[in-house]
Amino acid sequence: MTGLRAAVLGTGSWGTTFAAVLADAGCDVALWGRRDDVCHDITVEHRNEEYLPGIELPAGLRASTDAEEVLDAADLVVVAIPSQSARATLEPLADHVPAGAIAVSLMKGVELTSDRRMSQVVAEALGVAYDRVAVVSGPNLAREIAERQPTATVVAAVEEGTAQLVAGACATGYFRPYTNTDVVGVELCGAAKNVIALAVGIAQGRGLGYNTMATVITRGLVEITRLGLALGADAETFPGLAGMGDLMATCASPLSRNHTLGSHLGQGLTLEQAIAVTGGTAEGVKSSRSILELATSVGVEMPIAEAVVAVLHEGLPVDELAPRLLGRPHRAEGL
Ligand SMILES: NC(=O)c1ccc[n+]([C@@H]2O[C@H](COP(=O)([O-])OP(=O)(O)OC[C@H]3O[C@@H](n4cnc5c(N)ncnc54)[C@H](O)[C@@H]3O)[C@@H](O)[C@H]2O)c1
Ligand SMILES: O=P(O)(O)OC[C@H](O)CO
């Protein structure tokens, strides 16, 4: 037993899965959700059939729509809701967050209105000091972890002690956390890989093969690294689990909503149609814009992200994506 009490805000696929990880690691866990039926399913049936069909959840998990009750005496406040809804959802809950609690962001996005990373949004909205905020990011497809398949992740916080505490709270025989103090790098990797996964999905939807996929992943990592370094990240983060690791998982797996949505676009669906058939939260759709804004603000070129924004939001036909990228002036490899 860790002896820690965790409140998980969000009963979607990752919130529910991470709550199960915390419970398996020995935490006392309660979830907060908006819907009575989902909360009832988790507490009474030990299932979340809507988001994780067929998965049996730890019997001790309980969920409620009453945020005050869920947050009572929480040591950890874990946030797993769509990035663009985070600030508005969290601000009304701030008064119920116990003094001294550590906040944990599981989200992989960048706020559209402010270009802020989710750790910044969580700290501001909940009124938690930044050195008490951690982020968790890595090759972490929820469904596989809910099935207790082995994986690793990165727990990042500017204060190593904060990262260690959260890592201790979520370490199980199938989920291995590594700590890192490079919050900027870890968060940018998590948000930007979704944009690269959209590009890979589009390519695969057009019937393109593994050479194209490998090219987009590799050059995608280069542009994520360029952005991260310009914003003060540590170069070692990018080839790690939060960078290359998550790119590989997200760009290769049909479980990824970003990859799936991209492939629907590649097959000719409109953005609205692709969002509707994909379901769940494909963060890259909106964060592609804020990530590009961040890049522009520091003078960094992100041609793949730019092309994804052009397809998703500016009407560039999917068939013009590859010629646009390959038609750029030749240059030396590297950053
Ligand atoms: N699913 C994964 O495999 C996975 C893995 C790692 C990280 N993430 C990240 O976790 C975050 C959450 O993703 P998810 O997969 O759990 O999404 P999801 O779509 O499965 O669930 C989202 C949850 O948030 C709730 N929600 C939506 N809008 C809300 C609002 N305005 N207020 C309160 N609740 C709201 C929904 O009801 C649902 O419970 C995203 O940033 C995602 O990138 C997901
Ligand atoms: O389903 P996606 O595309 O949001 O990806 C899920 C996770 O971020 C993979 O690590």
Automatic annotation (TrEMBL):
Q: Which residues form the active site?
A: 193 (proton acceptor)
Q: Kindly list the places in or outside the cell where this protein is found, as annotated in its UniProt entry.
A: Cytoplasm
One GO cellular-component annotation of the UniProt record comes to: cytosol
Catalytic activities: sn-glycerol 3-phosphate + NAD(+) = dihydroxyacetone phosphate + NADH + H(+); sn-glycerol 3-phosphate + NADP(+) = dihydroxyacetone phosphate + NADPH + H(+)
Q: Which residues of the sequence carry a binding annotation for sn-glycerol 3-phosphate?
A: 108, 138, 193, 246, 256-258
User: Kind of enzyme, top EC level?
Assistant: oxidoreductase
Protein name as catalogued: Glycerol-3-phosphate dehydrogenase [NAD(P)+]
| Organism listed in the record | Cellulomonas aerilata
